[in-house]
Amino acid sequence: MLPITAYGHPTLKKKGKEIDKDYPGLQKLIEDMFETMYHSNGVGLAAQQINRDIKLFVVDASPFKKEHPETDGYKKVFINAVITGEEGEEWEFEEGCLSVPGINEFVKRKPVITISYYDENFQYHENEKIDGIKARIIQHEYDHTRGIVFIERLPQIKKMLLRGKLNDITAGKVNPGYKMIFPRKKIKR
To answer: pLDDT for 4-21, tens place per residue?
Structure first.
């Protein structure tokens, strides 16, 4: 079990660095990320959320299989991912984040993405098209590898309304039921 970095933690703002197949402990890290994600009831987890500034995230969309059967068994590792295209009309969907416990908000994203990435075996997947909920989860985690938390995609008025809850998360005044790392110093807003 790895502790999750809380909203306001500086690592969440860091853009991920590319890694290679010789990254120390990569396979164990991937296993630990899946275990942490499952224990925390998440569907995705990016390296920034476990205090690492690298381009790595994992997803398992299976919890959506009842409403979206295409997600059944969709479990993947994305290393050095690059979204090369987004298409379609933006649609809203309620998102949450393990780094922002207790806050779920509707976020607009494009329904179809084209992505290139390496998997856990360092096999390259070029220009893979992904749509629907799977694309949504990937976009959310991909944002993390670019130093973006989903809160930043909300309208300014919504962010203002959430300020108190966000300050509580930053200050460590939450107990989501899993281990978290909180910022050491007060973050200016």
So the answer is: 999 999 999 999 999 999
User: Would you list the DSSP string of 12-75?
Assistant: GGSPPBP--TTSTTHHHHHHHHHHHHHHTT-SEEEGGGGT--BSEEEEE-GGGTTT-GGGTT-E
pTM assigned to the model: 0.94
The size of the chain, in residues, is 189
What domains are defined for the chain?
A: 4-174 (3.90.45.10)
The two three-digit tokens of residue 40, written as one number: 């925390």
Check: CB of residue 98 under 8 Å from CB of residue 47: no
Residue 141 known to be catalytic = yes
Among candidate residues 120, 128, 141, 152, the one labeled active-site is 141
pLDDT in tens, 44-58: 999 999 999 999 999
